[in-house]
Structures are given as structure tokens and as C-alpha cells.
Amino acid sequence: MSRRPSHPVRLLASALAAGALLTTAACSDGGGSQSASDTAAEQAGVARPDAAKRTPTGSPSASPATLTEAGAKAALLTEADLEGGWNQVQDADKWRDRLLVGEVDVADFLTAKSSATDCQALLDALYGDGLLGDPSGPSALTGFEQGDSRLLEQVAGYDRGGLDARLKWLRTLPDTCDEFTATGAGGAKRTVQVTEASVPEVGDARAGLRVSVQGDADGGPATLTLDVAAVRVDTSAVTVMGGGLDGGQTDSVEQAVRQGTERLKTVLDGGTPSPQPTTMD
């Protein structure tokens, strides 16, 4: 992927997350002292509910804890979570793919002009790391390189209604934006194809896409292929985007989604993700 000068990340992620996940608040021990679960929650950066509001032992589990800035960072993937020689980088927030910059040709949508708006929104979101829209809560992002391929992950908190609507919108794009043309700088034409991609059965809801952009790069023909996945857990989400001019990264994206979702769930449960993954395929 080619780079462009840095500007604030909105998110892929869209990276291409990044992202969000499930489960329960710790129970009060009934005393005035701080419990071990409270200490673990603070170390993971998760805001815990007041003791008086916690679920008594034996009662149904409470809502997941609120994601914090520290929690979002703790939930991010590490090199240990990925197979295949991925190296973590420090400037993932500066990644931008110039092949994603272009104006959608409205003439490709003779019967539904609104489809052109959706396809333009997709390109803009992929370029600006805003696949799930602007987070309403904390957000953290990381990236990895493997040769000429890149993998971007974002973990963020969102408004529940807006997050569900965005995931539903993503699922419509393989039909709405099956194939269209975008015009880049200088009038260069690019053919964009959008297909559905499978996502591991993790989290509360999910959506996956494969986006292929055929155009010119560095004076010759090039095809940018991106595998994209987003998973919701309660009001948080993990977004992962991987690929490049050498093709997509289906296996790595699926692995990143599994591990990223597990790390987020651990944080929301008040724990600290292990430095080593608990499950590897």
C-alpha cells in the first residue's frame, strides 16, 4: 500500500479495526476493601461500576464494563497474536491507500443513484479508517507489516444504535456496490469490486467484505485487494483490514479477528489479555 501524509485517524478500521466485545462486571465482595477483580479491572483500563450497583453473587450477570482509553489500547493485537511473520509498526495511523481516492461514476448506477452515494462512502471510509463511522467512545489503533502487505486493527467504543446500523449497511454493499468505476486524480479510471467475505463466528454481530481496486500505481497497472472485517461486542467493536498490492490476507484477517475479539472480551470482563494468545489455529 502507498502512504500519504498523516492526519487524524477516524476509524477502518475503515486500516482498515478497528472495533468490540462482550461480557460481565465483577461482583462485589460485600466488604469495603478492593477485590482482586477490581484491581485487575483497573490494570486493564476498564471502568467498573460502583459496588452498590454490582450484581450480587449468584444473580444474572450485569452489563459489560465501559471501554476506556487504556482498555482500548490493552485490547489491541500484538505480534504474538499473529502468525506469518507480521511486524508491528509505529506509524499505522499514517497509512493511506491512494488507489482508494476517487470519485464514483454515477453513470454506473442508472436505476439507483443512491447506490453511488453508498459506494463513495465505502471508498472514503476505507481511505480514512472510518468503516464503522466515528467512534463515540475511546479508540485505539495498531498496524503490522509483512513484506508489501499491511494489517490494520482498530478497537473503539460506539453508540449501539449507530454501530448496528453501520454493520447492517456494510452487509448491503456486495449487492449495492458489486462493481463500479471511480475516477482518480488526472482522470485515471479505477474499477472497484466488492464481495462478501466470511467472518469468524465471534462477538455479538459481524460483517465482512473483500474490496478490489484495479488502477495504476507507480506508472503501471496495479490491483489493491483488501480483506475487511468488523465485529461488535456490546457497544465496542474490533475492525481489521489486511491486504495490499500482492493480494488479500484472508487467513491473517480471520486470525486477527478471533484474537482481537478475545482480547477485547477479556478487557471488558475486567481482565488483562495474556501476552500469548489463548487459541491459535
Automatic annotation (TrEMBL):
Identify the stretch(es) annotated as Disordered.
27-66
Q: Where is the signal peptide?
A: 1-28
Signal is among the record's keywords: yes
Q: Which UniProt keywords apply?
A: Signal
Q: Where is the composition biased (Polar residues)?
A: 56-66
Q: Which protein are we looking at? A: Lipoprotein
